[in-house]
Amino acid sequence: VARPQYAITILMDYDAHTLSVSQDTYYPNATGQSLGSLLLAVNPNLWSGVFNLQSITVNNQPHSDYSLAGQNLTINLPVALAPGETVKIGMAYTLTLPYASSKFENFGYTARQTNLTDWFPFVVPFLNGQWVLREPWAFGENLVYDKADFFIELGFANPDAIPVVAASAPAEATDAGFRYTLPNARTFALSMSREFLYSSQTTASGATVTSYYYPEDANAGAAILVHTAQAIDTYTNAFGPYPHSTLAVVETDLNDGLESDGLYFLARSFYKSYDGTPQNNLTVIGIHETAHQWWFGAVASDQAEEPWLDEALSCYAEHIYYETNYPGLVNWWWNWRVNYYSPTGYVDTRIYNPPTFRAYVNAVYLNGANFFDALRLRIGDEAFFNFFRAYYAQNNGRIVTASDFFNALAANASGYDDIVDAYFQNR
Ligand SMILES: [Zn+2]
Known about the structure:
Bound molecules: zinc ion
């Protein structure tokens, strides 16, 4: 296999908030070195009583030489995995979902929906001779993902009362639920509710966007569908092709926005405060999360150590969205989104260093937008957008570092070193 593959069969009792899961993982050793063990991230094991591992097999043989502590599942292989070889890991486990609060982001259930993000064990990337699995933090994201292929079979214990399901890929109906195939993606997210309404729109480039929302928020649900489809067209022109065939936009009971691959969440509070204009959090955060399909999904990075590589780019993508579609609102965007907070702090700040969420956003997102503005003014629009398109084309599918970014920039422009010095501490 060319990439890791996850073949996952779920039997879900929606009302009991439980999942019984059978997962086959095919991991090809593309590291160039022999591997004596694999490290998998198990986000659900950060809760107690949620993840219950029942059995592991390695190449179809029962296997007990593993350790599970917090989010770290280390599987010691009976025979080292040579470069180019593939190992099959079988796992059976159950998930007893937690009641979700904002603290736990979008994993678990609320009164009206169930959200499955980072819900299955996955082999973390192996970069520069090390497995990359960062500790969670009070804000920001910490997981890093290889590209993989997903084959998901979701069945319900009660097929007569199946909820509406939003997913990272288009659904194919089965007797008891749905089947999904998602090639070449970072992860696979699901969100479900019996109350969701939904509507879809096709972008100019042929991707299908579906907006899932609660009945009382139909106007906002329709608006974010239009903005998201428009943003896909805007970013396709500015950066390069949208990487998937679908995108699900999901209203969530939880806070803020959160990107996944092929799906993003948007807080119910944004739908509630939607005022019929494009000048609000529903639009700004929605198109920000849409940009993460390019800067997180297609071009990934170490979200904990170098969060600016997806957040600063997604924040500046908001500017590109407004200048393209609502040029009269660019000044509004600067004042409302950036200048109001008088952002300070180095753009290349880790998630672990700022004292508050606001300080983190100010440094990484907002000063990131200031950096791109200064850079664009210096090098001009042609070089600026040539750089973005080249950077995207060269790094689509990869996990990048700051060096990849600055190498692509240097290939397309010059004379901006003082700007980099002003905004970055590690360059
Ligand atoms: Zn973001």
